[in-house]
Amino acid sequence: MINVIEMLKNSAEKYPDKAAFKDPGKSVTFGELHDRVLRIATLLMKGELYGPIEAEQGVGFYMEKSVDAVCAMLGVVRAGGFYSFIDVRQPAKRAYSAISVLRPVIIITDDENKDALKRIFTAEENANAARALSDPHFAKRSGDDRIPKILLISDLMKLAEGCDPDEGLLEMAKEVSYDRMPLYVNFTSGSTGTPKGVAVGHSSVIDFITEFTGVFDINETDVIANQAPFDFDVSVKDIYSGLLTGAGVVLIPRDYFTNPTVLMDYLADNGVTTLIWAVSAMCFVSVMNGLEYRLPDKINKVMFSGEVMPVKHLNKWRSFLPEATYVNLYGPTEITCNCTYYILDREFEKDEAIPAGIPFANEKVFLLDDEDELVMDVDKEGEICVGGSCLALGYYRDKEKTDLVFVQNPLNDRFYERIYRTGDIGKYDADGNLIYTSRKDFQIKHMGQRIELGEIEISATACDGVTRACCIYDQKKKKILLYYTGDAARAEVTAALQNKLPQYMIPGKTVQLDEMPMNKNGKIDRGALSLR
């Protein structure tokens, strides 16, 4: 298998009438999905819209996830291109920055978001792009720049219905396909303020998803509840696990995570068995008492990633769904979803860190110290490094940043071995499990001591009356700042920390918030906290 479309083709042959994807307004079977993908690919390759899509060309999506979005993005892939979802809730300037990096030939949007997309290009310095969006026949090229055209997904789907699959064109696309072709580009935060586009190839997704579904026995009887937006790589596990195994995928609208009763009804009514969610989404359910309202009792697999899971929230889930398998997943976007996993087989104390666990097969995970020496001793920290087929292709149109972190393994002087330096700090426990401790940039030197801010966060979250906690360090004032949510008084939190931590780790300032600021990927926005 060299192309993810083979996953869809195989499942369409095995389960043609089985529901593949469903949103609140629409559903599509595997057979219907495969047919629509072939029609959309043919339409895009014929070039009757804005010129033919060519191999390895990018198509942008500026819309929320939906069944139609799945059809369109896989149609782009079948035509030989790749897709990239641009977060519709981010500031226009940031969205334009991502689009400028991507330079898509087309941006597919919907009626709800088309005006916002046009506004992205209405700044004075982008006047030509605005004209291109309003006039499909206008395009401006300057050097390597290309102004994207806008295409409504409703128009695309309607035109595709009347476009019969062209076997000749489809075979041409198949002939030039190879396993390292880009499949998608997901944008992550950049230290310079410009988003970094992580380009991931077909082979990385095929390699990971094949192992992922095998380890956790995801199969055609499962119903996966997709929480993550399609611009976040957690969704890759949902989409391609479904395509590979024949499992159904239920798409949860973003706003359901502001209404726990609607969310829990949706999970229960659709017979969901599998959750592969961000930690923040799980915490939302437990904080809002969603499980008390209605229990989706068919859930048998609960996997979480993205942040350290607060044990108190995990324990609440386990009390309601004690027979489910719970899994902590670890890995940054650059290594295709996850590189390690830990199946919880015991109870954890409130201030105990849940291990990141052991590597998936065909993934090389190891620690390097500051001298680039291999770390193997228990409790000795090092930077987490990853190698194998899972690695992303690099940062799109950014060789400089790519070369900084996708590097030759310093332990190997015998042959070329590309690894990714995650910037995460970890250690091994006595059982050989990897323990994530912090980011490199969360590790500070304070009062002559090296401190992991993550350790303070775990201790704070374990306090009674604290639901979430986040630490940042004010370099100018040399002060540790703790932000938390919950009912606990500040004095109570400080007193609890003084019983758990040495004095040099006690925050210089503790701030109680009504809610944590979140970034587009559902993680705590540390940058927003630092501006307070």
Q: Which sequence of strands runs across the widest sheet?
A: 2-1-12-11-13-14-15-16-17
Strand tally is 29
Level-1 CATH class name of the largest domain: Alpha Beta
CATH architecture of the largest domain: 3-Layer(aba) Sandwich
Helix/strand-derived category reads alpha/beta
**C-alpha-based Rg, rounded:** 23 Å
Count of discrete structural domains: 3
Fraction of helical residues = 25-40%
Biggest sheet features: 9 strands, mixed
Helix segment tally: 18
The CATH topology of the largest domain = Rossmann fold
Describe this entry's structure for a reader.
With 532 residues, the chain is an alpha/beta fold. It has three domains: 28-199, 3-Layer(aba) Sandwich (Rossmann fold), CATH 3.40.50; 252-437, Rossmann fold; 447-530, ANL, C-terminal domain (GMP Synthetase, Chain A, domain 3), CATH 3.30.300. The protein is 32% helix and 26% strand. It contains 18 helices and 29 strands. The longest helix is centred in the first third of the chain and has 17 residues, at 30-46.
List the helices and strands and how they pair.
Layout: H1 5-14, E1 19-23, E2 26-29, H2 30-46, E3 58-62, H3 67-78, E4 82-85, H4 92-102, E5 106-109, H5 114-120, H6 127-134, E6 141-142, E7 145-146, E8 149-152, H7 153-161, H8 167-175, E9 182-188, E10 196-201, H9 202-215, E11 223-226, H10 234-245, E12 248-251, H11 260-269, E13 274-278, H12 279-287, H13 290-293, E14 301-305, H14 311-320, E15 325-330, E16 340-343, E17 358-359, E18 363-368, E19 374-375, E20 382-388, E21 394-395, H15 399-405, E22 406-408, E23 418-428, E24 434-439, E25 443-446, E26 449-452, H16 453-461, E27 468-474, E28 479-485, H17 490-498, E29 509-513, H18 526-530
Parallel strand pairs: 1-12, 3-4, 3-5, 5-8, 11-12, 11-13, 13-14, 14-15, 28-29
Antiparallel strand pairs: 1-2, 6-7, 9-10, 10-21, 15-16, 16-17, 18-19, 18-20, 20-23, 22-23, 23-24, 25-26, 27-28
Helix pairs in contact: 1-2, 1-10, 2-3, 2-7, 4-5, 9-10, 12-14
